[in-house]
């Protein structure tokens, strides 16, 4: 067991507030060391195995660079498109994959379609398993987002966050769980269709956590209302990985939910704009994404620092 209350990072709902504080304190320490070019090889001789059923730029590169900077090593495995058995991790059971990797490496980082697969790996591995995005949640991204909000707004408790777009995808879900855990007020603006609204289980967890921590979670179909008093405006793609066949329908359904110059007129001037990336021009205009209110590239950078903290705390 590492220094957190959990063996694995599967969802933010599983973490305590103290875990989140520890992750952020360690992030600040490691970020400072890296910025000052000071060594921080806290995981010397340690190895992680990372594998991906979907593409990745940020997650893959930041985890691999994190391990190099921490003095360890990352092995990369990916599914090979069109080949039924793909890479080693798809040709045997999740149970055996977890048992065998536990004999070689010190942690598993997995990006999967099915969230159950990550839960199964965690159950059968004796080493930490880190969710690097599933169809249900993306905790590494949201912990980074919360850290970035804190850097820019100096608080999380009571922060007003507006999430515009697909309220039923992995980013909406983990933003809900993250905001609930730190006592922020989240309003999701999504089309009036249950398909684009949060998964009921996630809603239940987030509502419990929000109540305990003094936050709130609301869903509306009015983006202008959502951004009106927002400190943070968050968006994500309308067509997540694996939803490509729904593209035309989704482009129609999400009309009016773009984060653009017009919507920004309704938001406070000091609201910051966030996006986990990759982005498309459908959900956010280039002007807003690269404009003065955007902190999108700080978010991308912070993936490295926050994940280093997660690795160190889970592995030592
Ligand atoms: N935000 C994020 O997880 O990006 P990648 O899909 O490139 O890893
Ligand atoms: N919702 C997006 C997030 C990408 C980081 C997807 O799953 O494709």
As a percent range, the share of helical residues equals 40-55%
Radius of gyration: 19 Å
Span between N and C termini? 8 Å
Tally the structural domains.
2
CATH superfamily of the largest domain, please?
Answer: Aspartate/ornithine carbamoyltransferase
The small-molecule ligands in this entry are: phosphoric acid mono(formamide)ester, norvaline
**Unreliable spans:** none
Mean pLDDT: 96
Strand order of the largest sheet: 7-6-5-8-9
Q: Architecture of the largest domain in CATH? A: 3-Layer(aba) Sandwich
Structural write-up:
There is one protein chain. By secondary structure, the chain is an alpha/beta fold. The chain folds into two domains: 12-137 and 303-315, Aspartate/ornithine carbamoyltransferase (Rossmann fold); 141-299, Rossmann fold (3-Layer(aba) Sandwich), CATH 3.40.50. The protein has twelve helices and nine strands. Strands 7-6-5-8-9 form a five-stranded parallel beta sheet. It has a four-stranded parallel beta sheet with strand order 2-1-3-4, with helices on both faces. It is globular. The protein starts with 16 loop residues before the first helix and ends with a helix. The mean pLDDT is 96. Norvaline is lined by residues 133, 138, 169-171, 236-237, 240-241, 276.
